[in-house]
């Protein structure tokens, strides 16, 4: 803990005084984060660090395996964070961020190792669809490293699908007011892959690209456009 305590002391003594105005502004005006990011709790995957953002810029929710349980009547921390970010804070972008060398994905590959961690095992059931996809749609006898990587990438896509089951997200998407992103952070190289919904696969994020690949671009999508056409949000 020594390092952490020293860090607090440094923050209070040297950092905060220079940032006090910013913090006061954030209290006066309230937070207006640009995005909700759901990332793995892994200590090496810090969303603020990867995106070089500061206080007030990201609404962050982290858990083992960057999982979004599908919507259910049972209350949960992830569901509450999503609802609050979308409805109260009005975020327009939601990111699911997976990463390489993910321990949760290793647990998924080796359920026998989770016998002494029943809560982790139960939590990871929200990723079983990713396991099944890798089992059935990828070649048999894959190198374990490739299998682990495929699993982590497919897991991001599965969690994006779960995200759409949340009423606040479903409504935001129908109104064309939300954009969904699937990211994958490569610890070894610092590279970021982004899921391109149009191509159905991950592509490298390069600053040279004109448009950042998105999992789902904002577009009004209603099943009864002849009725929705008369509603105000359709014109936004
Ligand atoms: Zn992880």
UniProtKB/TrEMBL annotation:
GO BP: carbon utilization
Matching InterPro entries: Beta_CA_cladeB (IPR045066), Carbonic_anhydrase (IPR001765), Carbonic_anhydrase_CS (IPR015892), Carbonic_anhydrase_sf (IPR036874)
Catalytic activity: hydrogencarbonate + H(+) = CO2 + H2O
Cofactor: Zn(2+)
UniProt-annotated binding residues for Zn(2+): 40, 42, 99, 102
Pfam entry (one): Pro_CA
Note describing how the cofactor binds: Binds 1 zinc ion per subunit.
Hydrolase recorded as keyword: no
EC number from the UniProt entry: 4.2.1.1
Keywords tagged on the record: Lyase, Metal-binding, Zinc
Matching SUPFAM superfamilies: beta-carbonic anhydrase, cab
GO MF term list: carbonate dehydratase activity; zinc ion binding
Domain of life: Bacteria
Similarity remark: Belongs to the beta-class carbonic anhydrase family.
Function text: Reversible hydration of carbon dioxide.
Stored PANTHER family: CARBONIC ANHYDRASE
Protein name (database record): Carbonic anhydrase
Organism: Methylobacterium soli
